[in-house]
Write a structure and sequence with these properties.
The strands form two sheets. A five-stranded antiparallel sheet has the order 1-2-3-5-4. By secondary structure, the protein is an alpha+beta fold. The protein has two domains: 99 residues, Phosphorylase Kinase, domain 1 (2-Layer Sandwich); 60 residues, no CATH class. The two termini are 23 Å apart. One of its GO terms (cellular component) is cytosol. GO terms for molecular function: ATP binding; protein serine/threonine kinase activity. Keywords: ATP-binding, Kinase, Nucleotide-binding, Serine/threonine-protein kinase, Transferase.
């Protein structure tokens, strides 16, 4: 997998910054991998957004990439127990690497599918925790003059004794 992460990069390769551990999720945007930050030695999640090395494409999307960098810089200042922490953003020749807190529990969507598959139901206290977590995070975001426009597939659970919700606010 690390070969794929470094593929087509002549300078500033993924491996210059991180040591690959495993792939957590793959989708249309690219992928999310678990990695070790080579400087801090911290275990982190890296959202790898793949773009092209085509210079014309890159020039036409420069403002979009600049806006993404600005969003990550802003979001990295947010500090709330229900919001994933963003640490850094880096650019290689063909990828944008967004470094963030690693969430071990998986998505709420997957948990719901698993419960349905085995004909299980959420307890009322679990539903209450989930809803309170979402509302608390959204309230914090709004209090800081941000708006989250897409709550679809962004809710992740942190593995602890109780359900602790983390919202991935950059999607």
């Amino acid at each position: 997998m690390e070969e794929i992460l470094n593929q087509n990069d002549l300078q500033h390769r993924f491996s210059d910054y991180y040591t690959y551990v495993e792939t957590l999720e793959q989708g249309a945007f690219g992928l999310v991998v678990k990695a070790v930050n080579n400087n801090s030695k911290a275990l982190v999640a890296i959202k790898v957004a793949v773009y092209t090395s085509n210079l014309d494409y890159l020039k036409s999307n420069y403002k979009r990439f600049e806006a993404l960098e600005q969003e990550v810089a802003i979001f990295s200042q947010l500090n709330h127990q229900n919001i994933v922490k963003f640490y850094d953003i880096k650019r290689t020749d063909t990828k944008i690497l967004i470094e963030m807190e690693i969430i071990n529990g998986g998505s709420l969507q997957k948990l719901m599918y698993t419960k349905l598959k085995y004909d299980q139901w959420f307890e009322i206290k679990e539903i209450k925790q989930i809803i309170q977590g979402i509302l608390s995070a959204l309230s914090y975001i709004h209090d800081n003059h941000f708006v989250h426009r897409d709550l679809n597939r962004i809710i992740y659970l942190q593995e602890k004794q109780q359900i602790l919700l983390k919202l991935l606010i950059l999607d």
